Amino acid sequence: MSRCADPGGTVGAFLCQAGQVLRAAGIEAPRQEARLLLAHAMACREADLLRDPRATVPEAAARAFGALLRRRAAREPMAHLTGRAGFWTLDLAVSPQTLIPRADSEAVVEAALAAFESPAGIARVLDLGTGTGALLLAVLAECPAAFGVGVDLAPGAAALAARNAAANGLAGRAAFLCGDWAEALTGRFDLVLSNPPYVESAAVPGLMPEVARHEPALALDGGADGLDAYRRLVAALPRLLAPGGRAVFEIGAGQREAVEALARAAGLVPLGARRDLGGIERALTLAGRPA
């Protein structure tokens, strides 16, 4: 292990030592994450740390940083430590009761917006398994005339999504319910969104530690073949989609053909899949069968 040149107690020393700890724990970007944690502990920006690496870290911030560092070295997700995650144009609160929003899921938002000629064509939106509310709120942010409903089985998740709507100025156009997918819903929607659990049960323990140990199994485990949630979702879509409506689901790598087959069996029309930044088919768009 290399030595840290800065004297103990300075920003530079804390960052150097923390980088070594995180590297030893298998964190991919240890120096960057050390800066994020120290900035969070000191309630400042990363740029402030870089501007004066010889500044002394206050005692209270040092204690807070030490606690955060131990948790991150144990592979607790960064978003759980800071309580925040960015998604689309939004700043969202997160909790252990919800999946952490990821950039890959932005493909769902892109596909949803591309499925209509203009945002004016999206008036009513439904997000099933809403979690933090990320998908629904991102679409509402782009469609100023739309109203959305988010549903989650976990009461804590629905409550968190409502707080995120308020924090992002969207509370007046969003409602959140606790429920079992669309079981209690009536009415039709122009757009139905979902990022359901789609990991095969046997594969869940082998996910990266941040996910397998700390994110809710309810939002990950898609059953033996990873398709349990899709079976229920496609069965509900014919009664949920308004004429001309679209559904966009997040899917796992290699799941497109299987989900499309389920959709066709339910009388739906697959319209194509959008790839995420890694090139994986991530967002599947479906339509109701024409009359």
Q: What CATH first level of the largest domain would be assigned?
A: Alpha Beta
How big a fraction of the residues is strand? 15-25%
Which term fits the overall shape?
elongated
Rg from Cα: 21 Å
Main sheet characteristics: 7 strands, mixed
CATH architecture verdict of the largest domain:
3-Layer(aba) Sandwich
Low-pLDDT segments: none
User: How many β strands by DSSP?
Assistant: 9
What attributes does this structure have?
291 residues, alpha/beta, Rossmann fold, 7-stranded mixed sheet, two-stranded antiparallel sheet, 19% strand, elongated, SAM-dependent_MTases_sf, S-adenosyl-L-methionine, methyltransferase, EC 2.1.1.297, nucleic acid binding
